[in-house]
Design a protein that fits this description.
Elements: H1 4-11, E1 23-28, E2 33-37, E3 40-41, E4 48-52, E5 59-63, E6 72-78, E7 84-90, H2 95-149
Antiparallel strand pairs: 1-2, 1-6, 2-3, 4-5, 6-7
């Protein structure tokens, strides 16, 4: 007769081989660098660490204090049959350099806008000056006509107003 404990073992598998896998992180470059296997870190750099929570399928490679030299291709290897790999490309962007570039771009855009405004103002001034010159020319020519017509009448005073 089977005891309660033996019956329990019969209902549940003792060893689920499909769940036994090793996850490794490798940095791919001219010479591959093994970073982690499971939760054990093999890298000579303490900034690298594999993170995995029990009953989770997620394996994360944590890199503390990321530096420019950390950029590159990383491989997550899963020891299944056949083996599975996921490749990730890490691009490191210097935050301060990025902010500086964005500020420079904004300044260039503002300078360009300022140039456009000045150009438009100069065009408006030229147009305004041309209008004034035309008005003066017209008024002078009208005055000359009036003076020719009124040569005998010295009491006639011509006043020209130019509005600017």
């Amino acid at each position: 007769m089977l005891s309660e404990r033996q019956t329990e073992f019969q209902r549940k598998p003792i060893c689920d081989i499909t769940k036994i896998v090793k996850v490794s992180w490798v940095k791919r470059k001219a010479i591959q660098e093994l970073l982690t296997v499971g939760l054990i870190t093999y890298a000579n750099d303490a900034r690298f660490q594999a993170i995995h929570f029990h009953h989770s399928e997620d394996w994360t490679l944590q890199i503390k204090y990321v530096q420019g030299r950390d950029a590159g291709l990383y491989e997550c290897q899963v020891s299944t049959h056949p083996p599975t790999s996921i490749f990730l490309h890490l691009e490191v962007v210097d935050y301060y350099e990025k902010v500086k570039e964005e500020e420079e771009e904004e300044e260039e855009e503002e300078e360009e806008e300022e140039k456009k405004k000045k150009h438009n103002i100069k065009q408006q001034q030229r147009q305004h000056n041309n209008n004034i010159n035309n008005n003066i020319s017209n008024n002078i020519s009208n005055n000359n006509s009036n003076n020719n017509n009124n040569n005998n009448n010295n009491n006639n005073i011509n006043t020209n107003y130019i509005h600017t």
